[in-house]
Amino acid sequence: MHASVGDQLVQHGRVVGQHDQISEVVEVIGTEGNPPYRVRLENGHEAVISPGPDCQVRHRDEGHR
Question: Does pTM top 0.85 for this prediction?
Answer without folding.
Answer: no
